Amino acid sequence: MFAFLRKNQILLSSCCCLLLSLYILTAAARGQLKNDPIGPLLLWIMRPLQIAAQTTTNWIDEMENSYSMLTGYKAENEKLRERIQQLEVERDQLLEAEATNQRLQKLLEFRSHLPSGVVTASIIANSGSSWFKSCLLDKGSADGVHKGMAVVTPLGAVGQVVAVTARTAKVLLLADPNNGVDVLVQRTRARGIVSGSLDNGTILKYVKRSEDIQEGDRLVTSGFDGVFPKGIVVGTVVKVRKQTLGLFQHIEVMPAVSLARTEEVLIVKADVNQEKN
Amino acid sequence: MKLSLSLFVVGILLILLQTTFLHLLPLGPVVPDLILVLCVYWGLYHPTVGAALGSFLLGYSVDVVSSPILGLNAFAMSLVFLAVYLSSRSIWLHHPVVSSIVVLLASLVKGAALILVWTVFLSVDGFWTGAVRYILMEALVAAVLAPVVFALLRRGQAYVEQIRVTA
Fold first, then answer.
1. N or C: which end of chain A has fewer CB within 10 A?
2. B47 with B87: CB under 8 angstroms?
3. CA dist., res. A67 & res. A75, Å (int)
4. What predicted TM-score, i.e. pTM, was given to this entire model?
5. DSSP string, B49-112
């Protein structure tokens, strides 16, 4: 008997445990288990351990939450930064559109003062050589642009068309040494030729020594060259030097139009100019 | 007996883990059943009377701490221990995957026991869908954790035995 018990002690003890647990289960389910001696003891032992473990867990959880929150803030921050960048791009686009609108409005207003048959064009390229001051426009012979036409903006004269293809026109700027525009000094009506020079920028040539030219004098097109309409601003006198020898004064001019800040121009047809002149 | 007692203390610590730290794991409502893994270990490597009693007591402890009805886990763990003990002679554990499979099966046995007890003593709406889901998930998690827990227990056991020999 004892041998059997000893041999199967594990099996028997397991079965006893099973039966005991079933008994406890039944009693507990029926509500008959009033006095549980082991449960309170276990809880009494485990309570401080569980408090400590739970405190640690809570701390870890809190740390994790803080970390998640920080990560969340970081993600939110990145999102907001992206949004700001997006808004800045939109704002720039709007400002650009507004600036373009204003420029075009000015151009339109200016165009209304010019004779009819004016072509509006955009500058699509600047000079590829430092020896020449020119630019390329997006309108050509197909748009009614011809060689010799004047190119202007509301701010003043830009240059004249020197070469044309069907869809493009090359413009020689006032600052180019090969260009020449017949001008009048607005204040004194003295005549001269505005041209570019390689060493001194834009200059006013062929003004007699006797003429009264002062810094700040405005120069306008005379209309006698058959290219530009009369009265278009060309530039402002920035330096006057009367040489000891020679017939003419040396006058440096600041062009009214800076190509770097110009995007749209008006091309004035030659026949119109001729009518005007 | 000393080893069983040591493992019982480990079991209490595992209950502590189960009721606290393991809730931090991103496993949703499923809590890894380390007690089950311990009972399987007991059944496989140390099938003694102390181990049988330990399984029962650990199950009971789980009941005390978290079960709505006493005896539920005590019954399940006792059954798991018994099942593993009976099958331990025909199981040859050499690979962590095998231990995982054994724990998975043991977990299913435990799930079956819980279902049995639950249907007899308790009635809950939507029990079956929830039960099946929990059983499967618990079994999988326990199976995944089993090799690690087994390795730790073996190392701990070796340490205890070394101390005993030295003493």
1. N
2. no
3. 12
4. 0.50
5. HHHHHHHHHHHHHHHHHH-SSTTHHHHHHHHHHHHHHHHGGG----SHHHHHHHHHHHHHHHHH
Mutate to test the interface with B, among A12, A21, A26 (most CBs of B within 10 A): A21
- Residue of chain B nearest A50, judged by CA positions: B16
Report the amino acid identity of residue A60.
I
pLDDT of the residue at A271:
52
From chain A, pick out residues whose CB is under 8 angstroms from the CB of B21.
Answer: 53, 56-57, 60
- Find chain A residues with C-beta within 8 A of B70's C-beta: 24-25, 28, 33, 36, 39
Say if residue B83's pLDDT is above 70. yes
Q: Which chain B residue is nearest to residue A40, measuring alpha carbons? A: B64
Return phi, psi of residue B68, to 5°: -70, -20
Option in B20, B56, B72 nearest A57 (CB): B20
> What integer is the mean pLDDT of A218-246?
87
Determine the average pLDDT of the residues in B9-34.
Answer: 80
For residue B31, which residues of chain A lie inside 8 Å, CB to CB?
Answer: none
Nearest CA in chain A to B78: A18
* Distance separating alpha carbons of residues A228 and A190, to the nearest angstrom: 17
Inter-chain contact A49–B78, Cβ cutoff 8 Å?
A: no
Q: Are A194 and A203 in contact (CB under 8 A)?
A: yes
Structure confidence at residue B126 (pLDDT): 56
Distance CA A78, CA A258 (A): 41
pLDDT for A51 equals: 81
> Who among B19, B63, B85 is closest to A14 (CB)?
B85
Which pLDDT tens digit goes with each residue over B92-102? 666 777 788 88
